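Pilot study result, target chain (190 residues):
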Amino acid sequence: MSFPTTPAFIYQAPRGGWTSELTQHPAAAWLKQYTETALDARAWEKGEPYSNWHTNDFTVTKADGTVVEGGKQAWEQAIPSMYAPFKAQQHEPGMALVFETPDGWVMLGEAKVFAQLHVPSPEPKVKDASGKEWDVVTPGAFRFQFVRDPKAAHDGLLLKGTTIFADSGPAITLMLRLGVMKPSDFGIST
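Predicted structure:
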């Protein structure tokens, strides 16, 4: 049986991280810049406009299934709320599959999100690929939709959509152990 296929860029990191092999693809190079200078640097707190990174009709689907439509709403509300439990975070890509669409690319990828909590943690630290220590690491997978826009602030691309599949369990478990969260925060009476 034959069926149509689409060429794809496939990358599997040996240890994780932004390697030159991964960033040879323009969408991955753009995503590295977005991740490091927008997400992990929390550019929304510094007044950077959403339009540098997102389309006006950008949609983010959070790991809990919540859908937020609109680049401005996502940049000012949804994205900050996802990172609010952390003092700092760093994304470390592990694999990516990218295929071209008529107006850009779609990327499916997995990454680890390393984070520092707002309170000191006596728990054993976890290390990223560079050896830096963090309080916790959460695994995640993502679907990104990139569109070409010659007026875009960064390399002619904007993000039109992001879907997040993440396991918040490690972070929630640690925050429960540290007393940052309580079972009652989840509607559980003890």
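One observation from the pilot: The mean pLDDT is 94. A full batch analysis is planned for the follow-on phase.
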